[in-house]
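Quick one: structure for this chain?
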Amino acid sequence: MAGCKTNQGQFHPLFDHIVLLSAPAEVLLARIATRTNNPYGKRPEERDDVIDHLNTVEPLLRVTATVEIDTTAPVEHVVQQLEALTKH
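Got it. Here's what it folds into:
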């Protein structure tokens, strides 16, 4: 599952791991600028929203995460880390 909602904490006990996929602002904005499948984040006010969410929402998510994965790593490495969490 993926997403962020104000009531998500009530569902955390249903999962083995709560994973925060993170990247610095400059990486996120560069990815948004070059993606072609989603227009969100192209306008200056949307880019400002991305930065605002990084500053206000991400710290809250970090507190409740059981694992944080830095997505500046190659995608294969990120996938390996996620797959490793599924092994008991």
